[in-house]
Design goal:
Blueprint (H helix, E strand, L loop, with lengths): L2 H5 L23 H18 L8 H10 L14 H6 L6 H6 L12 H14 L5 H6 L2 H8 L2 H11 L2 H11 L15 H4 L20 E3 L3 H5 L2 H13 L4 E3 L8 H6 L2 H20 L3 E3 L3 H14 L4 H7 L2 E2 L1 H10 L12 E6 L2 H4 L6 H7 L4 E6 L16 H18 L3 E4 L2 H11 L8 H9 L2
């Protein structure tokens, strides 16, 4: 079979490949060119419709087509295309799990990156709400809300029905969305004297045996115990841990907004620090899947010729990916003290599309007296999508199958590697049971 004919095969018979984003090209921000490409891809999606159950972008597109005078994409007003763009939060599942026309297929469909291009064009035009600029400015919000007195006020306001109604009216944040708690005692403050005394790096497979923790803005300001759990587990397994000396938000929230210049600024702050650590023999881990994906996939596709970006790409790991790589080489402790019983485990989209396999499930399944049920459905949260007034109810509808699975299982624990997804499930359950991060469950199992 010739290469040309091989590329024309129907279906996902080859591993999908990703082209560089090409955002510095002359035509990237050209709106007429964008509209032609949107129409081309929408025609393909309309003829296929496999992705209808993934998110709200596809039902929106298909409803627009089905309600058009021609019942085809050519009957949809170009201005209505933006409705489809609005509901894409770049989960990447359509590209990685559903679409039969991704590269190397000749139709060359990369729906998420086309939506990203559209978001970038929209942002460049200034067509973006102040709310969305604020919600994606995670470092600034976290630093302000992390001031001791301010943190108390913000957390109290987030729990106040009156204040939430005001926030809905003024800012467009849905009153029923769970907002993250802020900690004045941040992870970076807690770990300022971090030293893995007495631990020597022991390489195993791809891992070099010592780890630098990229705390992430969420892990630093909102749920610092997750980072503490990670360090406890890694040190128990003889892995020295240090904290990345300084960091900014990974850039994923700004990427999803289409603010690519802000992504550049985040990259210029983070990559030199991380590359320096890699050169010194450290591997990198981060407890939030979206942050790992940013360094593994999105930055390398934005900056395909940057050697430091490539260096970080190959040295950053999901925590459970790292632990299971070491388990494969016989370097993981399995001296568990406590069984976990039944665990409903939600596998978040941004971890699934890393193509590392179900490492969290595999790790938790090593714990005796533990039964793990994996739920591979999107939670619909996306960091900001679920808190927007116009999107919250849709996000909860997307999450409903996940919530139903947890309700049916009645587990001892429910969990997600994405802490925001965990709280989205909590919001759907409304039974008082809190989510527990897999790192927290693993620490419990070890009895640490």
């Amino acid at each position: 079979m010739t290469p040309d004919s091989d590329e024309r095969r129907e279906g996902s018979l080859q591993a999908p490949t990703r082209h560089p984003l090409g955002w510095l090209g002359s035509g990237f921000y050209d709106e007429s060119s964008l509209m032609k490409e949107l129409e081309r891809v929408f025609e393909i999606c309309h003829g296929c419709r496999r992705c209808v159950s993934l998110c709200h972008s596809f039902p929106t597109l298909f409803d627009l087509v089905d309600n058009s005078p021609t019942l085809e994409v050519d009957g949809v007003k170009k201005d209505d295309y933006w409705q489809v763009v609005e509901h894409c939060y770049l989960c990447d599942l359509c590209f990685m799990t559903k679409c039969p026309y991704v590269p190397p297929h000749e139709w060359n469909v990369d729906f998420p990156h086309l939506m990203l291009r559209a978001k970038a064009v929209k942002f460049k035009k200034g067509d973006v709400k102040k709310r969305d600029r604020l919600l994606t400015n995670t470092d600034r919000v976290g630093k302000l809300a992390g001031v001791p007195v301010v943190a108390q006020v913000v957390n109290a306001a987030n729990r106040s029905g009156i204040m939430r109604k005001l926030l809905d009216k003024v800012l467009g944040v849905h009153p029923q969305a769970l907002l993250p708690e802020y900690h004045s005692n941040t992870l970076r403050k807690r770990l300022k004297n971090l030293k893995s005394d007495g631990l020597n790096a022991v390489p195993a497979g791809r891992t070099r045996g010592k780890v630098a923790l990229f705390a992430t803005c969420y892990g630093n300001f909102n749920e610092p115990p997750i980072g503490e759990d990670l360090i406890s587990i890694f040190e128990h397994n003889g892995i020295p841990v240090t904290l990345v000396e300084k960091e900014q938000c990974c850039g994923m929230p700004k990427l999803e907004l289409g603010d690519l210049e802000a992504v550049v600024r985040a990259k210029e702050a983070n990559i030199p620090e991380l590359a320096k650590l890699v050169d010194a023999g450290w591997d990198i881990v981060a407890p939030v899947p979206s942050c790992v994906l940013m360094f593994k996939q999105e930055l390398p596709l934005m900056f395909p010729d940057d050697p430091d970006v490539a260096k970080v790409k190959h040295a950053i790991f999901d925590p459970f990916e790292y632990l299971m790589l070491r388990h494969k080489e016989g370097k993981l402790k399995t001296d568990f003290k406590n069984g976990l019983g039944s665990v409903s485990y939600h596998a978040p989209c941004h971890q699934r599309v890393q193509n590392i396999g179900p490492k969290t499930r595999e790790m938790l399944s090593l714990v005796p007296d533990t039964e793990v049920e994996t739920i591979e459905r999107c939670s619909g949260h996306d960091g900001t999508y679920a808190v927007k007034s116009e999107c919250h109810e849709i996000s909860m509808k997307i999450c409903r199958p996940v919530v139903n699975r947890v309700q049916q299982a009645k587990p001892n624990h429910y969990s997600s590697d994405c802490p925001m997804a965990g709280h989205q499930i909590e919001n759907g359950l409304k039974n008082g049971q809190k989510p527990e991060h897999p790192l927290t469950l693993l620490r419990i199992a070890y009895g640490l």
